[in-house]
Structures are given as structure tokens and as C-alpha cells.
Amino acid sequence: MSLLNRIKLYFSGIIEEVNLDWKKVALEINQQLIELQMKYQDAIQRIADLEKIVAIYKEKENTK
């Protein structure tokens, strides 16, 4: 697409400005990855905690 077409489409509201600076894009993607990894770790920890609780309840049931 030519520069003139991009300018016309941008000002007509059809397309939005795209960030072409690869360093900024890489930093944004890296930040998103870090956030997803933290959510994943929280989910894994919650599952482990719930499995421990279930094991405690099963042990209580077996001792009755």
C-alpha cells in the first residue's frame, strides 16, 4: 500500500495508526507475556492448594 493510500485511509478513519517501532512492540508483548505467566503461576498455585484441601477432606473421611 502506498504512503498516500495509508494517509487517506488513516484520516478517513478506516485504519488506526500502527506502531512500527519494533522495540516498543517487543516491550509490550514481553509485558503481556509476563502478566500471563503470573496469572498462570497463580492458577497453578490455587490448584495445588485445592488439591491439598481435598486430600485433607479425604483423609478425614477415611478416618471416620
Which descriptors would you attach to this protein?
mainly alpha, 64 residues, 2 helices
Terminal CA distance reads: 75 Å
- Report the mean per-residue pLDDT as an integer: 85
Low-pLDDT stretches are none
Number of strand elements: 0
Helix content: over 70%
* Beta-strand share of residues: under 5%
For the report, how would you describe the main beta sheet? none
What structural category arises from helix and sheet content? mainly alpha
Gyration radius from CA atoms, angstroms = 25 Å
The best one-word shape is: rod-shaped
Annotation field: number of helices: 2
- Spell out the helices and strands N to C: HH
Structure description:
- The chain has 64 residues and is mainly alpha-helical.
- The protein has 2 helices and no strands.
- The longest helix has 42 residues, at 22-63.
- It is rod-shaped and about 80 Å long.
- The mean pLDDT is 85.
Task: Walk me through the topology.
Layout: H1 3-12, H2 22-63
